[in-house]
Design brief:
CATH class of the largest domain: Alpha Beta
CATH architecture of the largest domain: Alpha-Beta Barrel
Radius of gyration: 23 Å
Number of helices: 17
Strand content: 15-25%
CATH topology of the largest domain: TIM Barrel
Distance between the termini: 25 Å
Largest sheet: 8 strands, parallel, barrel
Shape: globular
Strand order of the largest sheet: 1-2-3-7-8-9-10-11
Helix content: 25-40%
Bound molecules: alpha-D-glucopyranose, calcium ion
Number of strands: 19
Length: 555
């Protein structure tokens, strides 16, 4: 396999609105990010992905872009973006923006022109169909609820497609003129010094056409988008063109947000010269989900999680590099999702960190994860910002759940969990802003915050630093980057264990997800502990005894 510059990198996702507020207006911004570059460098991360910072009406927190070639004044200016790129590069760090091109905002000039002249040039940038409320072109349900069709303002006989929110009209990728605009826009950013993109909802750019109904799956008479995604063939033609026209000429690093990929597509997606450099592994994320609503979701146990990860590691082995995560801005906090309640302790959090960080693929940290930030408790639906949670609340109530039960589901699955401000210190507003934060700070900031953790050698934060240093240690780096992945003692319940091997060097990760101690047999020749979340294990007589929720990395 040809070695690429990004293979050995550690990545970090920034949700700019909630990272660090530089000017006291309660909203995180570029100045705030720039002020924390040294912090990120010291943590040991290399590649930074910024969730959208383009001008936006923020119907979906910036994932509704009204101008692709500018910065929203809430976040700063293009000049500050240039400064961020310069400052990051000076520290040998790389910056990715979010490429949100399945849809734009209804306030984007293209859509405004389409409203003026639906049959003109810009009307063809979207999916606009003749229809009426009783006869929509198809019965698909939008991701954020309701039908995917919305009347085109000023044209009672015309409807436009939006698979997400109605303020996010879908762009028509079948139109070569639209595709050219996008490639030119990507090139413009790359020439400005950007290092690449995270590709939002990229699998949605291909629709199963012509539009048609699928069997309804809820009382609303609509059907999940998954039906059409399953039948949409040919996304590869768009993705290959996007790579060749927009990414390859600049050596861009790209990571795809891809759900629903088919096994046979993997080599095209992330193989040598794939459409993307990498794509996220969402196997743990989607476990237990159904199309019927959050009230039908089931929890994930450590054994389920292990099964998910082992299966994906096997699926991609020899093909390419996945991007490994335990959370992102669309998900609950990983420690709240993957750890049993009793293990949501610093020790348990370190165990989870160790488990996923050393898998084959690129390790990603989502802001605040390195502190062990947790889900948010809610008292009322008025505290909720996330449109997806608001939609789920409605569905739950319609389904007969009480308000409290509906809130419990949001506490568990809602997107605000990951979007509360970064907890820098125990000062007011967790040191995130001197103003009023746009979203509540998690009240647990008094205990969970960077200032406290930085001073505590046994903190979750310092453990993440150990992990980044371990992955970069020249003595073992190739094993973690290029080594194979093989499950170890997979049949042992609640033991999540694997071996990474490269040119005869083997490193074992042994994680005990049980509330009782266990003794694990060690292969011959294992003599050294590289990492231990409790700093107490000893290797003797060819075995190691692990306490409840203890894990070790051994060589
Ligand atoms: C992706 C984003 C999510 C957004 C959606 C629509 O899934 O991660 O935050 O709501 O796309 O752009
Ligand atoms: Ca600000």
């Amino acid at each position: 396999m040809e070695r690429k510059w990004w293979h050995d990198k550690i990545c970090y996702q920034i949700y700019p609105k909630s990272f660090c507020d530089g000017n006291g207006d309660g909203i995180g911004d570029l100045a705030g990010i720039i002020s924390k570059l040294d912090y990120l460098k010291d943590l040991g991360v290399d590649i930074l992905w910024l969730s959208p910072i383009y001008p936006s009406p923020f119907a979906d927190q910036g994932y509704d872009i009204s101008d692709y070639q500018n910065i929203d004044p809430k976040f700063g200016t293009l000049e500050e973006m240039d400064t961020l790129l310069k400052e990051a590069h000076a520290r040998e760090m790389y910056v990715l923006m979010d490429l949100v091109v399945n849809h734009c905002s209804d306030e984007h000039q293209w859509f405004q022109e389409a409203i003026k002249d639906p049959y003109g040039k810009y009307g063809k940038y979207f999916y606009i169909e003749k229809a009426d409320a009783e006869h929509l072109p198809c019965n698909w349900r939008a991701y954020f609820g309701g039908p995917v069709w919305e009347p085109l303002p000023g044209h009672p006989d015309l409807y436009y497609l939006h698979v997400f929110h109605k303020k996010q009209p879908d762009l028509n990728w079948e139109n070569p003129e639209l595709r050219r605009e996008i490639y030119d826009m990507v090139s413009w950013w790359m020439k400005r010094g950007l290092d690449g993109f995270r590709l939002d909802a990229i699998i949605n750019i291909k629709k199963a056409l012509p539009f048609k109904d699928y069997p309804a799956d809820r009382p609303d008479g609509l059907c999940s988008i998954h039906n059409e995604l399953h039948e949409a063939h040919g996304v590869g033609d768009f993705l290959g063109e996007l790579r060749d026209e927009a990414f390859a000429p600049y050596g861009a690093f790209t990571v795809g947000e891809v759900f629903n990929e088919k096994d046979e597509e993997l080599p095209d997606f992330i193989g040598e010269n794939g459409y993307f450099c990498s794509m996220f592994d969402f196997s743990g994320t989607v476990f237990g989900q159904t199309q019927l609503g959050w009230h039908t979701f089931t929890d994930i146990t450590p054994e389920d999680y292990k099964d998910c990860i082992f299966a994906t590691q096997k699926r991609v082995s020899g093909i390419g590099f996945l991007s490994n995560i335990i959370e992102n801005h669309d998900e609950p906090r990983g420690v709240s999702r993957y750890l049993p309640a009793e293990a949501r302790t610093p020790a348990g959090k370190k165990l989870l960190a160790m488990t996923y960080f050393l898998l084959r693929g690129l390790p990603w940290i989502y802001q605040g994860q390195e502190l062990g930030m947790e889900n948010l408790k809610l008292n009322s639906i008025d505290e909720v910002d996330d449109i997806s949670s608001l939609d789920s609340f409605k569905t739950s109530i319609e389904h007969g759940l009480s308000e409290r039960e509906a809130l419990d589901l949001i506490e568990k699955h809602g997107r605000d969990n990951a979007r509360t401000p970064f907890q820098w210190s125990s000062a007011k507003n967790a040191g995130f802003t001197t103003g009023t934060p746009w979203l509540h700070v998690n009240p647990n900031y008094k205990e969970i915050n960077l200032e406290a953790e930085a001073n505590d050698p046994s903190s979750v934060f310092n453990f993440y630093k150990k992990l980044t240093r371990l992955r970069k240690d020249p003595a073992v780096k190739d094993v973690f980057v290029y080594g194979t992945f093989t499950p170890y003692l997979p049949e042992e319940k609640d033991l999540f264990a694997y071996v990474r091997e490269y040119e005869g060097k083997k490193i074992y990760v042994l994680a005990n997800y049980s509330s009782t101690p266990r003794t694990v047999k060690l292969p011959e020749g294992v003599t050294e502990i590289l990492l231990d979340n409790l700093d107490s294990a000893v290797l003797e007589n060819g075995s190691v005894t692990l306490q409840a929720y203890q894990g070790v990395v051994v060589k």
